[in-house]
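check these tokens.
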Amino acid sequence: MNRRNALIFFCFVCLIWLAFIYVLSSENGITSSNSSNKIMYFVRNIIYKDFNQFDEKLKNVINRRLSFIVRKSAHIFLFMILFILVFNFCFLLFDYRMSCLCSLILVLIFAIIDEIHQGFVYGRARSLGDIFIDMIGGFIGYLIVYFVICRRRRNV
């Protein structure tokens, strides 16, 4: 694949991923919670085989904590992938350091836009904490890119 086609490909993939994040952010609070709860119940049933034997107070604590972990993990995953995709696009245009910097800045900008957008969706709220969580995802994406590139350099 030549450079021009690679740029078009990665630009397209980045836009598709951004659209996917936008669609998820557009879900109202109830729909979003239901989606997260399906995953949370699946994880809970794997971790706590005897969950039904717990008292109600403990069940509620477990459900709230697992729901929180699932929701924040989704933020981390989405923005980790976003960083990797944006980095691949930027790396076709710039050197490694500039690509990392541009990717982190673009991830931050989209995290902010995403939170502003969520503030206008029924049942959702803006959260500076979620921007921070999104940036953790971007930083994990950076670490993945860093270790992949370091490994390639050692093997060359």
In short: Helices lie at 3-26, 29-47, 56-91, 96-118, 128-155. Residues 56-91 form the longest helix (36 residues). The radius of gyration is 19 Å.
